[in-house]
Amino acid sequence: MRHKAVNLLVLAVVLVSAGCGGKFDRSRSFAVQHHPVPKPDGRAPAPGGGETGYSPRGTVVAVETSVGTFLVDLWEDAAPQTVGNFLQYVDEGFYDGLIFHRVERKFIIQGGGYTPKMQRKPTRKPIRNEASSDKPNRRGTMAMARAADPHSAASQFFINLQDNSGLNHRGKTPLKYGYCAFGKVIEGMDVVDRIGNAPTAKSTSFPADPVQIIHIRRMR
Hints:
mainly beta; Cyclophilin; 2 helices; 10 strands
């Protein structure tokens, strides 16, 4: 397995949450000790980038972006505090006008914290990390971004572009705690992939032309 030399738990800016300081550094990379090889699950995608036979298990939100819309099924049963926190930001209109500020091709896209002028938006207090081994970071799942403290997630989230086992919960120590997956893209994965293939500024993961989050709303 090819290893990608990036640090899992440092990146106070990109995985920033409320109370975490620091200036945004476009040269820093997000988040893993290694970059796993994709592990396709063999399930065929439905037309439009959805998933065949998938039945939503919780609240579904529509994420409208400047390049298209995708739907996410949120897992209240598995990560109630995380979903509740996310939906509070959604209902407040917090995400409207923010951008996907980080693109790691064949890895993740991340947003929910910065304006188009790269100003960090103030957040509420961080939440408890609900990561567990039964909520793996598989392709299409949405997870909370955070800083070095496992319990420092606030508003920022990322979507896995492949199966990222290096982000999974493996233990209670900071290095093993992992990232909490709390939902899954059920329609519009083609839009997510379009964002994931966006050109980035040289030697960085900062999009040359960041995709904007126009609005996130509840569908059911």
